[in-house]
Write a structure and sequence with these properties.
Strand order of the largest sheet: 1-2-3
Number of strands: 15
Largest sheet: 3 strands, antiparallel
């Protein structure tokens, strides 16, 4: 189920979090680093989202600060650059400009480093935070093979891409530190200590729980890892703050603020807007990860929202090709290959989606029109048509209805296939719920935008 859907509850207060003892240790550690918990935040287990945050005493309105966390509590580029033992594992002379990794991948490696210190020496500086991290993740990446075989191409493409990125980064790390042995236990890194399975979990811990910030505000010195990293290093892990769940009904902003009194910095999260006039004590507090559709939420974070205000359903050119192959009326027609070539060369297959409020996207109408309504196949004529008067693309309603029906039937088959499996993993259960939400969305769009045309 979507983590942030609320139902009426008979009890006015949520249940205490089952990992409360672990979090008490985390509270103390963060307090020692300067966190004062001015908003009296506490972790509880909520019926629809699981673990989340609320305040026992404070009401919240738009404009209120949710949390103010000292920058020293974050695991950021500054943390890695100040950890001499971790830096010593990476010889800059071995860095290869053609084999770089993302900062997300490096932080995942750092989590494994911290975890090993915690287990081998009982001296990890972030032990309480490590104990607060989830033991498993519910993205489709962690579905069983039998479940993956029952999922749509759109999900599989993202999962394959994630797997490739993780494996490539792991191989780079293995080439840099894999032959080294840990001084405290004698085991080899990237073989016995940092296994691929553990690295995958660490990667998704960073993927699903990191925040964005300006790294230049945190670290201005010479970077040991500069030649290893591709892209920016603007990610950080935020202990305790990462217990906030996401909602599409709120807007939040986050920024690093310099304190004039101490010349230190705080990471400040502010509630900009919310659906209600205010939130009362013991009501769950939410933040926004951004205006993200359910497919993004599912594949990156492992959940979805029912009736997500930012959701839309995207189609691919392959969907249209499969529609033609399975529809007798459409398969009886001929389609010139130049049309499909033109669509690909001009990236018209991007942003092909339907939105309940906005209707059918422009690119989807253009592509349906070019394929089903035009006999022309010369590039110059196709160019005039595709980038001409937009009103000419309003004649594709029958083909759009065919496409919706095709996709609904396809997703119904996926759902049925999952339900035939003897047992679903937690990831498979979330994916099953997502598919049902897609079907609801497609049916609602169909009834809103196509019903009058079908009567």
């Amino acid at each position: 189920m979507g983590r942030t859907q609320r139902q009426r509850r008979r009890h006015s207060r949520p249940a205490a979090d089952t990992q409360l003892d672990t979090l008490h240790v985390l509270y103390k550690q963060l307090h020692s680093l300067g966190w004062r918990n001015e908003t009296q935040l506490s972790a509880f287990s909520f019926s629809q989202t699981g673990r989340g945050l609320c305040s026992k005493t404070q009401c919240f309105r738009a404009g209120d600060e949710l949390i103010r966390l000292p920058a020293g509590c974050l695991i950021s580029i500054a943390t890695l650059e100040s950890d001499e033992e971790f830096k010593a594992l990476f010889d800059p002379d071995l860095f290869d400009k053609d084999s770089r990794i993302s900062f997300q991948a490096l932080i995942a490696c750092y989590l494994l480093h911290l975890q090993h210190l915690h287990e081998a020496r009982q001296e990890s500086p972030f032990a309480a935070y490590l104990d607060s991290l989830p033991r498993s993740y519910t993205t489709p990446y962690f579905c069983a093979v039998s479940e993956l075989q029952c999922l749509p191409e759109a999900i599989l493409e993202r999962t394959v891409s994630q797997n490739r990125q993780i494996r490539d980064c792991y191989q780079v790390l293995k080439s840099l530190v894999g032959a080294q042995h840990c001084q405290c236990c004698g085991q080899r890194y990237c073989e016995e200590i940092w296994t691929l399975a553990e690295y995958r979990r660490a990667y998704f811990a960073v993927n699903s729980r990191s925040v964005y910030l300006s790294s230049r505000q945190l670290y201005t010195g010479r970077s040991h890892f500069q030649e290893l990293l591709s892209g920016t290093n603007n990610l950080a892990l935020a202990p305790f703050l990462d217990l906030f769940n996401h909602s599409d009904t709120v807007q939040t902003t986050a920024e690093l603020q310099l304190l004039a009194s101490s010349k230190c910095q705080d990471y400040v999260l502010t509630l900009d807007s919310l659906a209600a006039a205010q939130l009362k004590p013991y009501e769950q507090l939410f933040i926004s990860y951004g205006a993200l559709p359910n497919l993004k939420l599912l594949t990156e974070y492992g959940f979805y929202l029912k009736r997500n205000a930012h959701d839309y359903f995207e189609f691919s050119l392959l969907d249209i090709e499969q529609l033609i192959a399975h529809n007798k009326e459409l398969s009886a027609q001929s389609y010139h290959r130049n049309i499909f070539k033109f669509i690909r060369e001009h990236n018209l297959m991007d942003q092909m989606f339907v939105h309940i409020s906005e209707g059918c996207s422009h690119n989807l109408r253009v592509v349906l029109h070019l394929i089903f309504k035009q006999c022309a196949h010369f590039p110059n004529l196709l160019n005039q048509i595709a980038f001409g008067d937009a009103s000419q693309f309003d004649d594709v309603q029958p083909e759009l209805s065919y496409l919706l029906t095709h996709k609904i039937n396809e997703y119904q088959r996926f759902v049925a296939a999952l339900e035939k499996l003897p047992q679903l993993t937690e990831s498979g259960t979330v994916a099953h719920g997502y598919l049902l939400e897609c079907l609801r969305y497609l049916h609602d769009f169909e009834s809103t935008h196509c019903a009058s045309n079908n009567n």
